[in-house]
């Protein structure tokens, strides 16, 4: 069993991958991935939205519960969706707690900023492990004006270093660094006691995370920093087309898929 405390114990990099349903979580868990993130990337990757903003707490709770039911070893981290935290601190803590109490998450992830330091402390204090997330925070797409690399000038880089330290000090157990220069991610990793998990952040983080659709090759598009390690989309397309052809050709179901009840012989 992977725990929030044991994450940085091994010498090998930490592996983290998203999953949004039980069968996918079972595969990810069986493959030995350390952390399963029920990311709000489900907005794009599973729910057909063109951003993460419409994703609701109910959707994350339902998907997290499904993932948790299918996971034996991996740590299950539920992503807090847009506006489920940060508006009101008490409501944020209750929402995070719901993902643990009702959906069986082991921890929550929160897109972090200056406004989440005290919130992270409060959650850690009451017993909710928090994974922080800095660099590109996609819930801010309307402020950022796009999904661009962050921390590219000295001031922005220093702000990320400072916020990383503040969240670690507040009790976050790990930090996702998304779409930042590799040398910045390396510096943050060096400075922190807690593990960093990178996506589009170079090789020097303590771990890596990607979206399952990209790794499996399920979607039609992947970001340049992801790699498609499989081609599940064409596998699935072949299977579905073969089924369609078999039915239309009268080849499925065959006799082996059918049951004839001898008791019915007199009636039919
Ligand atoms: O929602 C998500 O999948 C994420 C990862 C990309 C870190 O936040
Ligand atoms: Na996310």
UniProtKB/TrEMBL annotation:
Record: residues binding 3-methyl-2-oxobutanoate: 40-41, 79, 109
CC cofactor note: Binds 1 Mg(2+) ion per subunit.
Intracellular or extracellular location(s): Cytoplasm
Active site: 178
Cellular component terms per the entry's GO annotation: cytoplasm
Metabolic or biological pathway: Cofactor biosynthesis; (R)-pantothenate biosynthesis; (R)-pantoate from 3-methyl-2-oxobutanoate: step 1/2; Cofactor biosynthesis; coenzyme A biosynthesis
Enzyme Commission number(s): 2.1.2.11
Single biological process term from Gene Ontology: coenzyme A biosynthetic process
Positions of Mg(2+) binding: 40, 79, 111
SUPFAM superfamilies: Phosphoenolpyruvate/pyruvate domain
Reactions it catalyzes: (6R)-5,10-methylene-5,6,7,8-tetrahydrofolate + 3-methyl-2-oxobutanoate + H2O = 2-dehydropantoate + (6S)-5,6,7,8-tetrahydrofolate
Main location class: cytoplasm
Subunit: Homodecamer; pentamer of dimers.
Family, similarity comment: Belongs to the PanB family.
Function comment: Catalyzes the reversible reaction in which hydroxymethyl group from 5,10-methylenetetrahydrofolate is transferred onto alpha-ketoisovalerate to form ketopantoate.
Protein name according to UniProt: 3-methyl-2-oxobutanoate hydroxymethyltransferase
Gene coding for it: panB
């Amino acid at each position: 069993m992977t725990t929030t405390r044991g994450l940085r114990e091994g010498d090998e990099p930490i592996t983290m991958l998203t999953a949004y349903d039980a069968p996918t979580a079972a595969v990810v868990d069986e493959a030995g991935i350390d952390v399963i993130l029920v990311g709000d990337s489900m907005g794009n990757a599973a729910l057909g939205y063109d951003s993460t903003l419409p994703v609701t707490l109910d959707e994350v709770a339902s998907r997290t519960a499904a993932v948790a039911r299918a996971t034996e070893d991996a740590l299950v981290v539920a992503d807090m969706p847009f506006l489920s935290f940060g508006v009101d601190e008490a409501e944020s803590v209750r929402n995070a707690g719901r993902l643990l109490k009702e959906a069986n998450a082991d921890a929550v992830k929160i897109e972090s900023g200056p406004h989440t330091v005290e919130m992270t402390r409060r959650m850690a204090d009451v017993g909710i492990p928090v994974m922080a997330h800095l660099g590109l925070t996609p819930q801010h797409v309307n402020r950022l004006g796009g999904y661009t690399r962050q921390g590219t000038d000295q001031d922005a880089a220093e702000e990320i270093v400072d916020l990383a330290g503040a969240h670690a000090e507040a009790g976050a157990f790990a930090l996702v660094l998304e779409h930042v220069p590799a040398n910045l991610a390396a510096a943050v990793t060096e400075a922190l006691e807690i593990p960093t998990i990178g996506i589009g952040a170079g090789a020097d983080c303590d771990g890596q995370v990607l979206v399952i659709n990209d790794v499996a090759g399920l979607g039609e598009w992947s970001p340049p920093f992801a790699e498609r390690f499989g081609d599940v989309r064409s596998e699935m397309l072949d299977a579905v087309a073969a089924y369609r052809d078999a039915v239309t050709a009268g080849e499925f179901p065959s006799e082996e898929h059918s049951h004839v009840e001898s008791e019915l012989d007199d009636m039919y």
